[in-house]
Amino acid sequence: MRQIPGAHGRRTAAVVTLALALTATLHQPAGAEPQSLPEVRAELDRLYHQAEVATEKYNALDGKVTRQQKRLGTLRAQVTSAERKLSRLTGLAGAAARSQYRGGAVPAEVQFALAGDPERALDNASLARQAQLATNRRIKALSLAEEELRTRGDEAADELKRLRRNRGSLDSHRRTIRTRIDAARRVESRLERKQRRELAALERRTADEAQAEWVRSGVLDSAGTEGSTAGRKAVAFATRELGKPYVWGAEGPDSYDCSGLTSQAWLAAGVGIPRTSQEQWRLLHRVPVTKMRPGDLIIYNADASHVSLYIGDGRMIHAPRPGRHVTEAPAGSMEILGVVRPDA
What we know:
Elements: H1 9-26, H2 37-102, H3 108-114, H4 118-189, H5 193-216, H6 229-240, H7 258-268, H8 277-283, E1 285-287, E2 297-300, E3 306-312, E4 315-318, E5 327-330, E6 336-341
Antiparallel strand pairs: 1-6, 2-3, 2-6, 3-4, 4-5
Helix pairs in contact: 1-2, 2-4, 2-5, 3-4, 6-7
């Protein structure tokens, strides 16, 4: 079974070596020998991988920012409510204080001693006592309202600070994504039409070789052929999305990135799953690659930066990278980290 690290460790090392060689070549003076297609492919893989890593970080943070914005709105509403409550209690406390002032604030036992009518004095004392207790309750409620207002205000201020920091990080990830994609497109733009065809053929040949080696390992011998009810719905959804463009950060309905497609496919099946490939790998139930079935998610690369939906017979559907479309491809054409099952 082909996993990370595994039978393809040498190939990965070779790709890294080629990428380093290409980086050096890019800094050669004008007139240097043109790059080989394997070197170009290695450089494109490196740049698009970096863009995908930044995309998944962006997606995770984008979800967090959305939740923070919602919480900040809730906290601000709570602050407004606490302010109204404090204003009302302040008014009541002021009215009570004025009433006591007009009554001379004479203690109940003194009023009883000085009263000519003992029964009336008892009534007055009882009323005075009730008024005193009511005043004390208002003062206590006022104190609690002031504390609540301070707490909610501090929470809102802290949440706003965190939100601003995360928005800054979003901008940083966005710049990284665009920088890597622009660099990859510049590399591609230097290729002639014939070279592009040859590069595409090289990519297909490499993918087919990886798939053949993966199948020869016997990984599919005990793999499931029938998905669960939800798994079949997820596969049906992904199949309908074939041909739609890859757009980083997108989760439909017109375009997708890799985890946007898988999360929406399973949402259409009635199962909510994490938004990013890293969180899908971290939180969903893991199953052996040899036991995977249609609907399961295949996680790729050591950093869990890519994900696809397994559809059976050694095939998967995924949103590959910028410039490509949602497509069906050999499931073993990339380095497999593992498999997760959303409805385990």
